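User: Hello, beginner here. Can you help me understand these amino acid letters and fold codes? It all follows right here:
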Amino acid sequence: MEIQSFFLALEVQNHGPGSYTAVTACVSQFSPPDGVFPLSVRLPYLMLLHRPSADAGESFTLRFNLIDEDGRPVGSPSDVQARGTFPAGGKCLLLAGHILFTFPTPGDYRLDITADEEGTGHLYSYNLEIGPGPRGQR
């Protein structure tokens, strides 16, 4: 299984199975309105998962980790896991949810999402730039 696409948004509305609307999709840069760190924010996401075969139902695990510009795990999410099941008969699955982020300081970060399958993982990375906010605090 692989993560075919992923984005954060300000809002994701579910209109029924497989039907979503994203408000301000592809959020990748923001700052705390008050300039105070650590910054905690809960953001919705929408992702498309793909697998090679539609023959049977298949369980999956996703792991979410926030990584700093030096490649170290930092803040949150930190090894947060989500589990689900691909229904039989489909190769693609739309998945929506929320992620609680905690950014310790302004800077460049990435969200690493690992799709675990049979001992091998598919890694998807999403870059984030967190600014200092109006007071310029670090």
User: Anything to note?
Assistant: The longest strand covers residues 2-14. The mean pLDDT is 90. Strands lie at 2-14, 20-25, 29-30, 39-50, 58-68, 80-86, 92-103, 107-117, 120-130.
